[in-house]
Structure formats: structure tokens, C-alpha cells
Amino acid sequence: KDHACLQKILHIVSVFFSYTYMLKKRTFTQSLQIAAGLAFCMLWRLSPVHPPNVEPVLATLMPFARRYGALTGFAFAVLNMVLYDAITSGITQWTAVTAVTYGLIGLASPLFMQGKYPLARYVGYAVVATLFFDAITGVVAGAVLFDMSWKTGLIGQIPFTINHLIGNTLLAVALSPLIDWLLWKTSKNQLQLSPMSSGNQSV
Asked: Among 44, 101, 133, 149, fewest CB within 10 Å belongs to which?
């Protein structure tokens, strides 16, 4: 009972602080954008018909982090991991691993989004972030949490990572620019960035 109670408390706290960070200094329109982005990711991931290892979290996260900054990227990633596990498997130590790892990806995302050629940056960061996420959650976590040998973890991770790379790269090409445009279109009075322009509107 104590363990279950602690899980619920951690869930509530993480959701509260993550959402608070994302909505800090946001307009009502921008808050709706963030809520819609979270809902989109949840519905996709909970759908029984989506292809395996093809999930839109990273492709959705990058435009939000690019326009709204590192803290929003961190919070958006953490919320995605925590809410999904809360709905499906429950909050476990695995939730902490995936939430922190994806949170770091969201935190670093705006650093890669500054400058010219944003589409290339979306694709490049999708590759880097996927390799980092799979290395931590697959190889490192396997060895530390489940006593798996490093060699076994690395070999077993390769086919999963290949599929993960293909899915995230395709979504970075097809989905990230669309979300970027939608963010600009629905709040262009508040945002200084034109769609797919260089730079970063961080807070």
C-alpha cells in the first residue's frame, strides 16, 4: 500500500509541476496548443493500430521546444512518459528512467533547433535523440536494473533501434514541420518566428 501510495504521489507531483512549467507565461491559445499536443501523443500511443516503434512524441516535442523553450520541452516529454504509464502499466522505476531520459532530450532540443535549415535539424536531432534514448533505456538500464550483460543488451537493442530510427526520422520529416506551422498559424500574433524560420522563441 505504501509503495502504491508513493507512486500516486509522484505521479501527481510530476504532472502538476510539468504542466505548470509548460503553461508559465502562456496565452490561452498556447496552452490549448500544449494540451492538444499531449492529447495527440496519448491517443496515438494508446491506439492499437499504430505501427510498432513508431510514436510521435519526439516529432511533436521538437517544434514545441523550438518555439517555447527548453523547460517546455522537458515538461512535455516528462508528462508524456508519466501519463502513458499511469494509464497503462502504472508508475514504476521504468517510468523514472524513460521520463528523465526523454526529459533531457526535451531540455536539449532547442539547442539543436537554432539556425538555418530547420527541417534538417529536426531530422538530425531525431537521429541523435533516438540513439541516446535507446542507449540509456535499452543498454544502460538493462545492465543496471535487470542484470543484463552489456553485450547482450547492445545486440538485442540493435533491431529495435533500427525500427525506432526509421519511425522517428520519417515523423521528423512529415510531422514536425506540420506541427511547427500549426503552432505559428494558431498563435502568430504572439510568436515572432515565422514557420520553419531560424531561431528559437524560448522562455
From this structure: 149
pTM of the predicted protein model: 0.83
Grid cell in block for residue 164: 525506432
The pLDDT tens digits along the chain (203 residues) read: 445 655 665 666 666 566 666 666 677 788 889 889 999 999 999 998 888 788 999 999 999 999 888 988 998 999 899 889 988 888 888 888 999 999 999 999 999 988 788 899 999 999 999 999 999 998 998 888 777 888 888 888 899 999 999 999 999 999 999 999 999 888 765 555 555 554 444 43
